[in-house]
Design brief:
Rossmann fold; alpha/beta; 9 strands; 6 helices
C-alpha cells in the first residue's frame, strides 16, 4: 500500500517520493492527483478512504507524492506547476494508468490525454486568494496590517510563505492564471453530487466517509464497475 517511486526532477535527475497505492494488476488503473497546499492536508484522509472504496470495487489506484510535498527531501520553493505536470505525466506512464482522477487543485497539473474525472476543480487564482486572505487575517491579529495586493506584489518578485508552504515566485505567477484543463474526456464531479459541504471549507482536517464512498461509486460506475 505504501511504497516509493522515482519522480523526475529534470536534467536526468529523480527523487524518491512516497506512493500510496492499491495495485492488484487489474484492468482499471487510476492516477490520483491530490488537492494542493493547505487543501491537501484537509483532504488526505478523504482521498485514501475513497481509494480504499475503489479497491473494494475492483479498481487499482495510485496516489504519488509530488516533489517538495509531505516527506519529500526536495525543496518545495523550487517546484512549479509545469514541473508537477511533467511528474504527473511520468507517473501515468510508470504505473500504466488508464484513467485519471483529480482532487480540487490537482486538475491544474493533469495530463490532457487521459480520460477520467475532475472532482470539484478549482482555479489557481482561487487557491491563492484563500491562502492570501488567511495570511492577511493572521497578520492583522498579530498587529500588522498588510493588504492582499502588497502580499501578491511581494510574491511575484520573491515568493511567499502561505499556510506554511514556501511558494516560489515562478509557481505563484503560474497560479494566478492557471485553470483546470477543459478536456472533453474528463468529467467534472461537483461537490453537490456528493451531498455534504467540501472538507476544504473546514478549519481542520476531517473525514467524510459517506462522501468518499459516493465519489468512489461515481468513478467506478463510469469506469465500468465490475460489481
Amino acid at each position: 500500500m505504501i511504497a516509493t517511486w522515482q519522480a523526475p526532477l529534470g536534467g536526468g535527475k529523480t527523487s524518491d517520493e512516497l506512493l500510496v497505492s492499491f495495485d492488484h494488476g487489474r484492468e482499471r488503473r487510476i492516477l490520483i492527483l491530490p488537492a494542493l497546499f493547505d487543501e491537501a492536508n484537509k483532504l488526505r484522509r478523504f482521498t485514501v478512504q475513497m481509494m480504499r472504496a475503489l479497491d473494494e470495487r475492483g479498481v487499482d489506484t495510485f496516489l504519488p507524492d509530488l516533489p517538495g510535498c509531505n516527506d519529500s527531501l526536495v525543496s518545495f520553493e523550487s517546484q512549479t506547476l509545469d514541473s508537477w505536470r511533467d511528474v504527473a505525466a511520468n507517473a501515468a506512464q510508470a504505473f500504466e494508468i488508464t484513467h485519471i482522477l483529480t482532487i480540487r487543485g490537482g486538475a491544474l497539473i493533469a495530463p490532457e490525454t487521459l480520460p477520467g474525472w475532475q472532482y470539484a476543480p478549482v482555479t489557481g487564482a482561487k487557491i491563492l486568494r484563500a491562502m492570501v486572505r488567511a495570511q492577511t487575517i493572521s497578520a492583522r491579529e498579530s498587529g500588522r496590517e498588510i493588504s492582499s495586493e502588497q502580499l501578491m506584489e511581494r510574491g511575484r518578485q520573491s515568493g511567499l510563505t502561505l499556510a506554511g508552504w514556501n511558494i516560489g515566485a515562478n509557481m505563484l505567477r503560474e497560479l494566478e492564471s492557471a485553470a483546470p484543463i477543459a478536456a472533453n474526456t474528463q468529467k467534472v464531479i461537483e461537490q453537490k453530487d456528493l451531498g455534504a459541504a467540501g472538507l476544504w471549507l473546514r478549519a481542520e482536517p476531517d473525514e467524510d466517509q459517506a462522501g468518499s464512498q459516493a465519489l468512489a461509486a461515481i468513478v467506478a460506475g463510469d469506469a465500468g464497475d465490475p460489481q
